[in-house]
């Protein structure tokens, strides 16, 4: 028996559904004694757990009782996977072949609410990422290509984390306080041009020697994403007396 389930179904649900379908077949078969072999330890543990409220597990438990009430015996036996057991290898092969089927099995059972939640959550985050990627570039786009990208901090110090975050988003008190005070943007005291995060980290000639001292590259994308450079960024900011100005 092989069939294809909806893509939103998790491995755990798919394994449980396969066992449920096998039990249905046993229920309406003429033989008396049955053994069902599975490598799904999660389903077996779910059956053993009296407090399990997962609908498909409860359905499996009810089917087992119904089979036993019909004077049949059923044993569910766990077998380890991927160790060359012939029957299990055949089942795995059939499962892989089923993924190529065109028709999706009509599930006469509610899909797990966990699977539905995960599917909806995935669609929301994919939509969010699409909107993020489609919008005009912001300062954060320089160091973050997608919402899924994890940017390291490499520090547990709260103030250091704040500094790194503000450097990455390109907004700080030093560079953007004029938006609150309605004054003119701050100018670099050395260059007499508007001060920005890229100017502080990569452009200002007055800080060139400090950048060399702490091995800070001219590409701020590299500077703000490389875990080995981040401690030097903090030292650099401290040396410039900018720790509490950002």
From TrEMBL:
Pfam family, one: RNase_H
Top-level taxon of origin: Eukaryota
InterPro entries: RNaseH-like_sf (IPR012337), RNaseH_domain (IPR002156), RNaseH_sf (IPR036397)
Domain RNase H type-1 positions: 1-100
GO molecular function: nucleic acid binding; RNA-DNA hybrid ribonuclease activity
Protein name from the UniProt record: RNase H type-1 domain-containing protein
Species of the source: Ooceraea biroi
